[in-house]
Amino acid sequence: xxxxxxxxxxxxxxxxxxxxxxxxxxxxxxxxxxxxxxxxxxxxxxxxxxxxxxxxxxxxxxxxxxxxxxxxxxxxxxxxxxxxxxxxxxxxxxxxxxxxxxxxxxxxxxxxxxxxxxxxxxxxxxxxxxxxxxxxxxxxxxxxxxxxxxxxxxxxxxxxxxxxxxxxxxxxxxxxxxxxxxxxxxxxxxxxxxxxxxxxxxxxxxxxxxxxxxxxxxxxxxxxxxxxxxxxxxxxxxxxxxxxxxxxxxxxxxxxxxxxxxxxxxxxxxxxxxxxxxxxxxxxxxxxxxxxxxxxxxxxxxxxxxxxxxxxxxxxxxxxxxxxxxxxxxxxxxxxxxxxxxxxxxxxxxxxxxxxxxxxxxxxxxxxx
Length: 369
Description:
Order of helices and strands: EHEHEHEHEHHEHHEEHEEHEE
Radius of gyration: 26 Å
Structural class: alpha/beta
CATH architecture of the largest domain: 2-Layer Sandwich
CATH superfamily of the largest domain: Histidine kinase-like ATPase, C-terminal domain
Number of helices: 10
Strand content: 15-25%
Largest sheet: 5 strands, parallel
Number of strands: 12
Number of domains: 3
Strand order of the largest sheet: 2-1-3-4-5
C-alpha cells in the first residue's frame, strides 16, 4: 500500500526562495502547495488540511504570526514552522509561544529541511497515539465505573418496590437519598465520557446542510412545557432568509438544550427566556477581517453571573456555584465545557455575557462557508 504523502504549505513572498523550497520538497516526495502572501495562505488552509505549514514571518496582507493564529484556531492538526531572518528572532520566539513547533533561520539549509519535516510529523503522530491511548484508557475506566454503579441503582430500585420485603418510612427515605446520589454520579460519569471523547478527537461530526433556526426552534419547542409550568415566558426570534450551514444537527441541538436547561434552572417565576437566531459579522482574531456567522443566543432573566466568575464559565476545573433550585441537582457542571468543545469542533465561537441582577446571555456562532 502506497504511503500517504506529507502535505506542506509554503507561504513566502520571496518567489525564488518559495519556488526553490517547493521544488526541493516535491522531489523528495512531499505534496506541496504555495502561497505568495498571508491572505492567500489563509485561503489555502480554508480549502484543505495540511500536515505542515512553513510560514515566512514578514509577508504582505497578513504576516506569519496572523496566519499562525488562524491555523491554530481553525486547523489545529497542522504543525507550523516559521522561517525568519536573523533580525526576526524575537518574533520567532513569539511564534513559538503561539504554538509554532520550530523556526528556521534564512538562508534555509535544504539538506536539513527534509529530515526536519519528516521528524516533525513522526513526533506529531507519536503524540497523537499517546493522546488516543490516554483517552481510550480514561474512557474504559469511566465505563467500568459506570456499569456497577448503574447496577447498584437497579438493585436499590428493587428494594424500593418491596421485592426483598417491606420497608419502613426511614428505610425508604434513606434508599431514596442513595438513589439521588447515584443519579448524580451516573450523570457525572456520562458527561466525563462525552468530554473525554470530544477532547480525544474520537467523536466524528455527522455534518449536513441545514437551518440553524430550525434546529434552535426544535430544541426550544421541547422546553415549552417545563418553562410554562414554571411560569416563565419563552420568546423565540429569528431573522428571515438565514443561510444554510453545514453542521452536526444532533450535536448543535445538544448545545442549545444545555443553554435552555441552564436558563430554566436560573430563571425565577414570572421571568423570561429569549432565544434569538441571527446573522452577524465576527472578528475571531485581532487583525483579521470580519467573517459572516449565524449566531444563536439564549437570554435568561435570572440573577446573572458575578463578573469574577465569567472567565471561569467554560473552565472544566472551576468551582461550581450551586443554584437555589432543585434543578441544580441535575447538572454536573461539565455541560458548558462539552458545549464549548462541540462548537470549537465546528470552528465556531461560544461565549457568555452577564451583569449581576440583569440576567445572562449565552451565545454561540457558526461560520458561514
